[in-house]
Amino acid sequence: MEFELIAKTFMGLEPVLAQELTQLGANNVQIGRRMVSFTGDQEMMYRANFQLHTAIRILKPIKHFKARSAEEVYDEIKTVDWSQYIEKGKTFSVDSVVYSEEFRNSRFVTYKVKDAIVDQFREKTGTRPNISVSNPDMRLHIHIADEDATLCLDSSGESLHRRGYRQESVEAPLNEVLAAGMILMTGWKGETDFIDPMCGSGTLLIEAALIARNMSPGIFRKEFAFEKWPDFDQELFDRIYNDESQESEFTHHIYGYDIDMKAVNTARLNVKAAGLTKDITIEQADFKNFKKPQEPSILITNPPYGERISTPNLLGTYKMIGERLKHEFMGNDAWILSYREECFEQIGLKPSIKIPVYNGSLECEFRKYAIFDGKMKEFRAEGGIIKTEEEKKEMAEKHRFKKNREFKKRLEENEENEIADIRSFKFHSLERVQERDERKKGGNRRNDRSYDNNDMPDYKGKKRFDKDGRGRSFGKRGGKERGRKNYQIDDYE
Q1: Is residue 239 a part of any domain in this protein?
Q2: Going edge to edge, which strands form the sheet with 35-40?
Q3: Which of 267, 343, 377, 415 has a CB 3.0–4.6 Å from the CB of 318, allowing a cystine?
Q4: What is the pTM of this model?
Q5: 118-122, 140-144, 359-363: which range is least confident on average?
Q6: Residue 228 counted as domain residue
Q7: 81-111 confidence digits (pLDDT tens)
Q8: What is the total count of domains within the chain?
Q9: Residue 482 is part of a domain; what is its CATH number?
Q10: Burial class of residue 142 (count of CB atoms within 10 Å of its CB; 0-12, 13-18, 19+)
């Protein structure tokens, strides 16, 4: 039986997520703001949690209603037969997101929902279910926009960006879902070598390997919330979990470099935890020593912005990036995520596409640079393509940043964040921030696959760049390890 589902994501990744869902076989796929709605059966819900690279949460709506007052919310929640969802002796939690003049505090809505559920159980059974914030048996989510309320079951539990392979982190790590979204935006599926010359803790490298191998990112997770539901189908999920028929061979290689040895060691640890050491090679090297790769390659990187990572001579770093790309990356494409317009200007190359994305609370751009030898006019005359027709269409459809817009860091938010379990990540519209600014003048593991699922602590890593920049230079590549690998982790601490 098909039912309504909602996949939540970060602003800017909605089209990528919609494409993933379509390829997965979902029906009625519709793009919204920070979400994509679709329909599917129980298997589709399991697969969405297990296989999607760009979703942060999969919600199952169970009731739509008007929320014009606190009493109306309470009464509507009580109309649901909660014995279907919360078994005797089980715990639950409620998460609320509210954009309403009537309800100024999301916690108030949370309490109203909890009260309605508890009162129903008391009236029917004489007992009440307990609340568990950290590890409930049933997670509920209510979203109120003006008067429209949607009550959902949260099928994911812990945010899906927490893959389970991250052992350690350097300062300001790139979110896994954002990293996967960036790679999918480029269209890369493993057809060439992949390079990240400022790899940090290795997130882009690992996500690239998962995409190239067509591996499900949920393979490393300890559990999903739906595994505690009364109607959980263990046999169905085991079949999905153990199905490797869609995985593919990867005949190229992924290279990561960083000037900071701490970052190199951290990235190697995370790659080992993901079981991808045969596909990924990580070395200490300074980007200023970058040499032309021997094989066709794509370069995707997330340099420091000078916001959460303090970097000496920030503009000089971006000038160096442009110089290295121009002289040593001819015939290949480079994609760069950054925040400051003045940084992009220092690169000194004309981008063929600019895509607005959010990295945490920062409104960034993801730019593509088609690197060619000689003048653009000559390159085009010889049949070279700077921007594909698809990219032209994408650029026309996307909301562009206004010319000379001043890049500003978001103010501290007073409202609760919709994805508050993702540390340091707050996604809000720029317009809302500006308006506020003006007002103020904010189970068992299957087949012995045992993975730990750690949170992302705030590790204080060293600077990615050092003015003196010591480190091995980019030398000739060798020692590529090809072929299929064993994804099981044996020495995971």
Answers
A1: no
A2: 27-31, 35-40, 3-8, 57-66, 148-154, 138-145, 91-99, 130-131
A3: 343
A4: 0.76
A5: 359-363
A6: no
A7: 999 999 988 999 999 999 888 887 888 999 9
A8: 1
A9: 3.40.50.150
A10: buried
